[in-house]
Amino acid sequence: MSTARPVGTAQPVGTGRGGNLPGLSLARLPASFFILTSHVVGVGLFADQVLQSHVYGALSKVGYTSVSFFIVLSGFVLTWTSRGTSLDWRRFMSRRVVKVIPVHLVAWVICAALFAATAFPLGTVLANLFLVQAWVPDHTVYFAVNNPAWTLSVEICFYLVFPFLYRGLVQRSTKALRILTVVLTAVVVALPFVLSLLPDGATFQSPGMNYHGVPEDISEWKFWLVYVCPAARMVESVLGMLIALLLKRGAWPRIPRWTALVVLAPEVYVATEHAHFIFATSAVGITGIVLLIGAVGAGDLRRPADRPAPAVARFGRFTFGVYMYQWPLLWMWYLHRSGHGYSGVEAPIVYAGIVALTIAATYLSYQLVEKPLDQRWRRRNARPRQAPAGVPAPTGVPTDTAAPAEPVHAR
User: Does pTM surpass 0.85?
Assistant: First the structure.
């Protein structure tokens, strides 16, 4: 019996929608953990100021690497779960808005009610609400209100251009995609080298950028350009797109996951202990991140179809909520204790309590906000599957052109 496809249903190589990748879902969890932990310590967990400065200095830089991981993963997931050679921009954006904006609004309202309405100028509060804060090169703006939302500001910009980038990249040859992957990785690495040759200008002090417990002054415009600016960070998102396309085409090099970790681990060490802040944010670790995402994705593709995914991988869907709700909870805790840290066994107990509250808030948000809105979007945007000529198409069967992928901001 012939099993050939009907004429006209074949897609170009590398444009079909990818399947589930439990390994990458699992990889979200430690990255999210590092970011949450760095924020908990950063608000002032330890009473011993020397210990506080050293621990936060190390964790914050691991957090920067984790942010870069999620930015690359964002481009990967959106590309992996897209099909065809073009996307409907309105449908794609409506899907993204439903996925990220409700959680952002809930977190913003909580922050505004707690402290933002009185602690920040109205323009800054509104910039955070409308997610344009990352375009302002001033840390009192892009880190204001719900601090982690600056990455959502970056992500929204990427969403706006993703369908156009996708259409351009899927039509490129495999050789061109490989060359572009190398070139963009080199761009991320080269940017801080170029910036280091230029004068600093105005500076601000950040406890997250220190050497062996000593906070240092950071150039405002350099920090913004290398870490916050949406245009600069979009290069990393495009790298994620390229990894996904090469994997879809079976053109990603066969690199074991342990090899990628061997590359990434010393990069994280260098970023933590030796690299200047403009190198530590993403340049030092980008090669290992690219190799790791590609290697884990390739390993998932080789996974037997009948082998169940690790149960813990399901928690990857909650990393976005953990990221967005941690800041209001941290500020409630900070205001309650008047900025005082803890010593002895108190610090780990308090830390565990904050993590538990953040996870609980995330779960409630998923059940009461994210899941119902997602289901409503699916019902309203259900499309019939294509049927062979002469066969009526069934109704009410959802088939997205833009992936129902979870947001990946655990940054």
Answer: yes
